[in-house]
Amino acid sequence: MARKPTLNALSPLTAAIISQMKSGQERGDSLYRGLRVRCLAGGTKVFFYRYRATDGSLREIRLGEFGALTLAKARETAAKKRLEREEGRDPQLEKHKERDQAS
Question: Which residue, among 10, 14, 9, has the nearest Cα to 72 in the 3D structure?
């Protein structure tokens, strides 16, 4: 009997894979370490970048919703966030500082 194909958790993300995600699922992109997508309870798929802070804590920053943000653009944004980390900056802390200054 033929087996139903399964999605490899280590495979690169594709728009088709993201579209088929069910509520509560989360997947990482094997091409861009740290880029992840999560399907929320209402079915909305959200891209985020997960990284380790200098103190060793695990942090994540939301990049945007799938649809409004394409997979290619999410990868580009994640690459920029990784570059910030390599420069010693913390994307999440910088976002909080910007938000505090705006209010």
Answer: 14
User: How much is the pTM?
Assistant: 0.82
Burial class (CB within 10 angstroms; exposed 0-12, middle 13-18, buried 19+) of 16: exposed
Backbone angles phi, psi at 89, to 5 degrees: -95, 160
pLDDT at 55 over 90: no
DSSP letter at 66 equals B
pLDDT band per the 50, 70, 90 thresholds, residue 74: very high
Q: Which has the higher per-residue pLDDT, 6 or 93? A: 93
User: Taking Cα atoms as reference points, which of 26, 25, 33, 71 lies closest to residue 51?
Assistant: 33
Domains, the chain, ranges and CATH? 15-102 (3.30.160.390)
Concatenating the DSSP letter of every residue in 85-98 gives HHTT--HHHHHHHH
Locate 72 and state its tokens: 């290619």
